Amino acid sequence: MKGEHTIAEIFNQPEAWSKVLSDLAPRGEEIERFLRGAGAGEAVFAGCGSSYYLAQSAAANFTGISHLPSRAVMASEVFIFPDAIFAEEMKYLFVPISRSGTTSEIVLATKYVREKMRAPTLAVSCYEDSDLAKMGDLKLIARGAQEKSVVMTGSYTSMLLSIQLAASLLAEDEDALGELRRLPELGESLIEEYGDTAESIGRRGGISTLIYLGSGPYYGLANESALKAKEMSISHSEAYNCLEFRHGPKSIVDPETLITLFVSESGRGYEVDLLKEVKGLGAVTFAICERADDSIEEAADYLIELKSGLGDYARSILYLPFTQILGYHRALSKGLDPDNPRNLTQVVKL
Ligand code: F1P
């Protein structure tokens, strides 16, 4: 069956999230002590491809939850343009992210940071014995999210969850930790309830461009969703911060454009106005939101309402399974095999 590994890993995400929560539960004090002891003025998250987009989500979540200034960079920039990233006088916490833990750029970046800057390193991966993990002063390993597939799905959300947990520990925020503990059960029931909706959108004909819009913690998810559509279904896909879409990219909207909006609570008024506007331009619209109202229902051709009861940060990984399922079924509808995406390998070696 085409894509059997990918779809199994998409549906296995809630279980992988449970493993992250149970693995990290006894390590709370160790993680908090390490993060506090780093005494960093800024956390720099780094990755490649999906893991770079994960770094974007992670940085927004880390600042939003722990209030430590954070930034996402592409791993290759660290060793090619270090001066453009690091300032002499600043004390950094470096957080390299890599599903495999062996991608050349992330290993080179981490070696650079450890040798040239001696910055404390929190390594995030799915493999305990990987080159990257071995370089971490502390490591977060999402062992339940190891994947056979080339494209990353559950590894993205599971590693992001581990970083959200670390941020909540640094903030000593019991409410935030309590929110994260609800995710596996919520994920299970939401995928059950709305998986078919995502599938039907993926299988819809007459779509040639896929646009994903997200702000704050949702911007990295929008980029990752566009990459999934590109990798699995070989589609023209792009991602933008919500309101940035009006500043030029909006020109590409036509009736063959599918626009997916990650609705946040923080920006929902602006975001739903934008959705109404692009629907007026002829786009097919898909909204994933915490709670619907008349304006969202009017603007969205397709709607997923999470009703999680969680805040904008804790809730964010609940959106991703649906754009993964969408990309997966779009690939199948084009006769492609998501387990074997064209031109790609599971790990990039320079
Ligand atoms: C990241 C990555 C993915 C890409 C493909 C190849 O690898 O480049 O972003 O989609 O799966 O691997 P890693 O450093 O996270 O292992």
N to C succession of SSEs:
HHHEHEHEHEHEHHHEHEEHEHEH
Rg calculated over all Cα atoms: 19 Å
Major sheet characteristics: 5 strands, parallel
Number of helical segments with 4 or more residues: 14
Strand order of the largest sheet: 2-1-3-4-5
Structural class computed from helices and strand pairing: alpha/beta
> What global shape is seen?
globular
How much helical structure, as a percent, in the residues?
A: 40-55%
- Indicate the mean pLDDT: 97
Strand % is 5-15%
- Spatial gap, N to C terminus: 32 Å
Any ligands, ions or cofactors bound here, and which? 1-O-phosphono-beta-D-fructopyranose
Low-confidence stretches: none
Q: Total number of β-strand segments?
A: 10
Structural overview:
With 350 residues, the chain is α/β, with parallel strands linked by helices. The chain is built from 14 helices and 10 strands. It has helices at 4-11, 13-24, 28-38, 50-66, 75-80, 104-117, 131-135, 154-170, 174-181, 183-203, 219-233, 268-280, 294-299, 320-333, and strands at 42-47, 70-74, 92-98, 122-125, 138-141, 209-213, 236-240, 257-262, 284-289, 302-305. It has a 5-stranded parallel beta sheet with strand order 2-1-3-4-5, sandwiched between helices. Helix 4 (50-66) links the parallel strand 1 (42-47) and strand 2. Helix 2 (13-24) runs antiparallel to helix 10. It is globular and about 55 Å long. The model has no long low-confidence stretch (mean pLDDT 97). Residues 48-51, 98-100, 103, 106, 150-152, 231, 344, 346-348 line the site of 1-O-phosphono-beta-D-fructopyranose (F1P).
